[in-house]
Each structure stands twice: as structure tokens, then as C-alpha cells.
Design brief:
alpha+beta, disordered N terminus, Beta-Lactamase, rod-shaped, 6-stranded antiparallel beta sheet
Length: 630
């Protein structure tokens, strides 16, 4: 007689049994324990495909199935199944091939349940060894557990354990203190969902991406230093942690996480970064100041000594002595080339601020769109091209003096901001909302008529009065012709040293020629003429006869007649002659204003000065370029 045993005849067996047809990936039969393992109700029918319960372990199942079909039966404790609620179960499986290999019978036991039963069996065995022996063993375990509790309690870092399902198994007091949850709250709960569920920006932190849970799958140690745990009150806690897998008899059973609160370290690092940034800013400021000081050393000046003995010069020195020791703003007016910058340096040198730098700004040389950044600085990203923070001239001049040359060139829209700094000694960098305080004395210079600009609406009257606290007029050279011998001697010494021509002399007769010339370019023109003659002189004697002759550079003011000016002329007539002379020079250079052979070089003036004059006269140099081709 043949006895046929089917799965239905062992429906109530405590071991889970499943009959699976690999070809159709279907569960043919399942007993009550098998349905319960998969997450079905007791009388339900398993309708899902078998691969639905395999999850990410499909490669291991395929290998195991091949072994069963090849050998007829097989055993494994490395496989897992995932129930309908997506919970993983570690299994011990014995499998047998049925119906010629078309179906497989799986007899499945939960590995954790087996482990529990083995432990109980071992405990009963120990109990049978004798009650005294059992008590001793129990005392040993209690002592070990007590020692472990003391160690965990004394550690300053947070420590908690997890099983392979992500449930908390223990937590030390430091961990409770850091995250605000008690061990009673967390043990048995999913730690990731409670305090590791979101990134610092609040976005969801998928458990599959969690480095702590990665230790359960790859068995590797994971170290992270840029994540947050969430306190029970909802505050993010920056942490660094190490997740270490735990193995028992070669089997991965969980992980232990050691973490520390790094808020204090981050605050210290932030303070250090701020301090380093402040040091860098001070370093940059010092470098800029040194750069300005080097420029001043290299600049051609007379170390704050104003050369001359005329009444105009003596009056100027007296004014400098009066205003120098004060903090009053000074407005220096006068034609180009009269030494307005030299006057500003003398005022600064005689002030209590002389140990701080004199910061120079040529307002005529700054592009209109960069004025505010030049004056007040900017922060990184304030505008296109602002790749770093930049210190402005006002901040750089803090405690010292700011000299604004050609102040009449400042755009009208910036004049109100300049007025505020003069009134309140406060400003903001471009792109920044931080108000900064400075202590700056301002000296300005101009060759333009600011009152006329006020009448035309191109200069603010309130700014003019704020700047014009102490006005100083820099007299033109034609009004101090008696100082020409001293000035010429001074420039001769400097140029002879610079050009290594110590043998050059200036005859008295040539000095008389210099005194007869009206010098529309003022002192700068005198300096250029002397330097040029030193270069071309072959016998060591300077000659200026060509200065007043036809056809040489700056020989005379251009006139409609060939008459040479010998007598002093009215300023209005001289300005007219200067304008005609400039026009003649533009015609000669074909409208070229700056650069080698340009009108500015031939006139002996700065390109910015010539541009300012042309703007004042309403002359467009481009019209002379067109005339070249007519």
C-alpha cells in the first residue's frame, strides 16, 4: 500500500512549508505556518508570485534552487524572505525536489526562533548540571552585564545598538542625553525613523541610503561626519558617527553605532574661520596700504616741501599750517599741474593722522559704474566679476586721510552717498547690509568751477559746502614766475640723478627764457620741459630757445598772429589761447589724446587732465580723426 502525503495533510505542522513551482514562479501550496510567515491570514490563499517575497536576495535563491534541482535536496541558513509588510526574516531552509523537479518543497524555520530554542535548550542543560552551577553562571553573566553597563555609562560618546531589522537593542546614557530620547522610548523601535529620518535641509532620508543600515547588508564599517540626528524636541544635532557591524558565530546580527555631538566643534571652527577671515582682511588691507606707500615713495614729489619764495607760496604754506592740525575737510582748487596733490600731502603730513596712510583717488580715471565699489568696496557676488570681497578706499583710509582728485567728476547719483559718509562717517559695501563706521578726513581737489556746476545741476550744493570747509587756491605758475629758478633747480637735481646726468647745468640766460613763457601746463609742464632738455642735451648745457620759437613743442600759446607774448595777459585770454593751442595739437596728432605721440604727451599734461579740459570746452577729439581723411 502506498501512502501519499500532501501539504494539506500537515496544515497545522509548526514548521512552515511551501510548495513552489519555479517555472511559473507561483506558490502551489502553503500550510498555516507558511502563510503566517509570508504575512497572510490563516485561511487566505497565497496569490503573490514567490519572487515577490525574495526582495534583494534573488541571486542566492536562484543558486539554492539550482542546487535542489541538481541534487534532489539541499539545506541553507543564508536565505531571507520578505513578508507582505516588507519585513525581512532570516531563515533556515531544507528543500526537496518533487514531481521530477517541476516543484520544490521548502521546509522553513525562522532562524531567530531557532536561536531562542537552542538557548533555552542550553539553559535547561545547564540547569540539569546542577542548581549551584547555574547560579554561578548566572552571577558571571550578571557581573559582565553590570561591568558593561558601567563602561557604557561612563563613555562620553553616544552608543546604541541595532538588530538587522533596524530596531534599537540598547542605548547608553550619553546617547539619551544627546538625542533627548530615553532608552525605554527607543529599545525595540526603529531608530532611523525616530531621529535619523531627514537630512539637515529637511528632505527625507531614505533608509536604503543610510550608512548605518548599510552595515547590515555589506558588513563594512561606515564613518560619516556631515549628517544630523534629530533631537526629541525637533532640533537638528550635527553629529559624526561610526557604524560597525556585529557578527555572532560568523553571522551578521546587527550593528553598534558610536556618535558624538559636534555642535561645539562646529562653533569653534566657525569662530576660527571668522578669525582667519578677519586676519585675511587685515592682511589685504595692510598689503594695499603698503602698495600705496610704495607708490608714494616712487612718486615724484618733494617730500611734502613746497618749493618757492613768492608771496603766493608763503600764503599757501600759512594756510597749510593753520588747517593741517585740524580734521576739517579741505577743498583745493586750481588749474591742472599746479601741485594740488602736493598741497594735500603737506596737509596730511602736518596732521595728527600722518602716521596713517594718505589714500589717493583719481575720480577722473574711475569708470562710472565702478565708482561706488571703488569708494565703499563690495562683497563677493555683488555684481558680475565680484569674485572676492574688496575693501573700498574709505575703509582703507580709516584713521587717515582720503584725497579725492578731480572731485567734480563724481557722478551726481553717488554724491548723496558721499555726503552721507562725510556727515555720519558710516557706509555699506556694495551688496552688503552691514553698516561700517570709519574715521576719515577728506581733502578734495578740482580744476573745475564747482559753483558753476551747482548752477547747472551737475554738483550738489550741500556736498559743496560740506567739502568747502577750508578752501585753498593752488595758484598757477604764471602768477609766481619768481619761483621758476627755485623750481627749475629742484627739477634739475632730481632729473639729473634719475637720468645719471650729474654734469648738466642751467645757465642764467636760459632761466630768463623760462620766466618769459606763460606755462599753460603750469609746474608739471616746467618739469617735463626740463627733463626733456636733459635727455637731448649733449654738452651738459640746457637750452630753451626753442620753447619760444615757432615749430617746437609748447613754443608759445597758439594765436592768429605770429606775435610772441611777452607781457602778462588776462586769465580769460590765456584760457582762450590754451584752448586754441589744444585744438592745434589735436589736429597735429589726428585726434589722438593719450599714448605715445598723443596730444596729452606733447602738451605735457595727464591724459585725464586733457580729457577734462576737452569735456569742459565741449570738444570731441574724434572730429580731428575724421579731418585726417578729408
Amino acid at each position: 500500500m502506498t501512502i501519499n502525503i500532501t501539504l494539506t495533510s500537515v496544515a497545522q505542522a509548526p514548521v512552515a512549508m511551501l510548495v513552489v513551482e519555479p517555472e511559473s514562479d507561483s506558490i502551489i501550496e502553503a500550510n498555516t505556518a507558511g502563510l503566517r510567515l509570508l504575512g497572510y491570514a490563516e485561511n487566505a490563499t497565497a496569490t503573490n508570485r514567490f519572487s515577490h517575497f525574495i526582495g534583494g536576495g534573488i541571486a542566492l535563491w536562484v543558486s539554492f534552487t539550482d542546487e535542489v534541482l541538481t541534487l534532489g535536496q539541499a539545506w541553507s541558513d543564508d536565505l531571507t524572505l520578505m513578508d507582505l509588510e516588507r519585513r525581512n526574516h532570516a531563515l533556515e531552509i531544507t528543500a526537496t525536489a518533487l514531481h521530477g523537479g517541476k516543484r520544490i518543497l521548502f521546509m522553513i524555520q525562522d532562524r531567530d526562533w531557532l536561536e531562542t530554542r537552542r538557548n533555552r535548550s542550553e539553559a535547561r542543560r545547564q540547569h540539569r548540571l546542577g542548581h549551584v552551577g547555574w547560579e554561578r553562571i548566572s552571577q558571571v553573566f550578571e557581573r559582565i552585564e553590570r561591568q558593561n553597563r558601567l563602561i557604557l555609562g561612563a563613555v562620553g560618546e553616544g552608543i546604541y545598538g541595532l538588530d538587522t531589522n533596524g530596531h534599537t537593542t540598547f542605548m547608553n546614557p550619553a546617547a539619551e542625553r544627546i538625542v533627548g530620547w530615553s532608552a525605554n522610548d527607543l529599545v525595540g523601535q526603529n531608530a532611523h525613523q525616530l531621529f535619523h529620518h531627514s537630512h539637515n535641509d529637511g528632505t527625507h532620508y531614505d533608509v536604503e541610503q543610510c550608512s548605518i543600515h548599510a552595515s547590515f547588508s555589506d558588513g563594512q564599517v561606515h564613518r560619516v561626519d556631515n549628517e544630523v540626528f534629530w533631537h526629541k524636541n525637533g532640533d537638528p544635532i550635527p553629529v559624526e558617527y561610526t557604524s560597525t557591524p556585529i557578527f555572532e558565530m560568523g553571522r551578521l546580527v546587527g550593528a553598534v553605532v558610536l556618535f558624538r555631538d559636534i555642535r561645539e566643534r562646529q562653533r569653534a571652527e566657525a569662530k576660527l574661520r571668522d578669525a582667519l577671515n578677519e586676519v585675511e582682511q587685515l592682511k589685504l588691507r595692510l598689503e594695499l596700504e603698503n602698495q600705496y606707500l610704495l607708490e608714494e615713495i616712487k612718486a615724484e614729489r618733494n617730500h611734502h616741501e613746497i618749493v618757492g619764495e613768492s608771496a603766493a607760496v608763503l600764503h599757501l604754506i600759512r594756510q597749510i599750517e593753520l588747517v593741517g592740525p585740524t580734521d576739517a575737510n579741505v577743498l583745493i582748487s586750481g588749474e591742472s599741474g599746479t601741485g594740488k596733490e602736493l598741497i594735500a600731502r603737506a596737509i596730511h603730513a602736518s596732521s595728527p593722522r600722518s602716521d596713517r596712510p594718505l589714500i589717493r583717488v583719481n575720480c577722473a580715471a574711475i569708470p562710472r559704474e565702478l565708482f561706488e565699489s571703488e569708494f565703499f568696496g563690495h562683497v563677493k557676488g555683488a555684481f558680475t566679476g565680484a569674485i572676492n570681497d574688496r575693501v573700498g578706499r574709505f575703509e582703507l583710509a580709516d584713521g587717515g586721510t582720503l584725497f579725492l582728485d578731480e572731485v567734480g567728476e563724481i557722478p551726481l547719483e553717488l554724491q548723496s552717498k558721499l555726503l552721507r559718509v562725510l556727515q555720519d562717517q558710516q557706509f555699506e559695501r556694495v551688496g552688503d547690509n552691514l553698516t561700517r563706521a570709519v574715521d576719515v578726513r577728506v581733502i578734495v581737489a578740482t580744476n573745475r568751477d564747482l559753483r558753476e556746476m551747482i548752477s547747472t545741476g551737475s554738483f550738489r550744493e550741500d556736498l559743496y559746502f560740506r567739502l568747502n570747509v577750508f578752501p585753498i587756491r593752488s595758484v598757477p605758475l604764471r602768477e609766481r614766475l619768481g619761483d621758476i629758478p627755485l623750481l627749475a633747480s629742484h627739477f634739475l637735481k632730481r632729473a639729473s640723478l634719475a637720468f645719471n646726468r650729474p654734469d648738466v647745468r642751467l645757465p642764467l640766460a636760459q632761466l630768463e627764457i623760462l620766466k618769459r613763457y606763460p606755462w599753460p601746463g603750469n609746474i608739471r609742464e616746467l618739469q617735463n620741459v626740463i627733463e626733456r632738455q636733459i635727455i637731448v642735451s649733449l654738452d651738459g648745457r640746457l637750452r630753451f630757445n626753442e620753447l619760444l620759437s615757432t615749430g617746437s613743442h609748447m613754443k608759445k600759446p597758439v594765436s592768429t598772429t605770429s606775435e610772441i607774448v611777452h607781457e602778462p595777459v588776462r586769465d580769460e585770454d590765456l584760457q582762450h589761447q590754451l584752448k586754441l593751442n589744444t585744438i592745434a595739437m589735436l589736429r597735429r596728432t589726428g585726434g589722438k589724446v593719450s599714448g605715445d605721440g598723443g596730444a596729452a604727451e606733447l602738451l605735457g599734461v595727464k591724459p585725464t587732465t586733457l580729457a577734462s579740459r576737452l569735456k569742459k570746452w565741449g570738444i570731441d577729439a574724434r572730429q580731428f580723426k575724421r579731418s585726417q581723411f578729408q
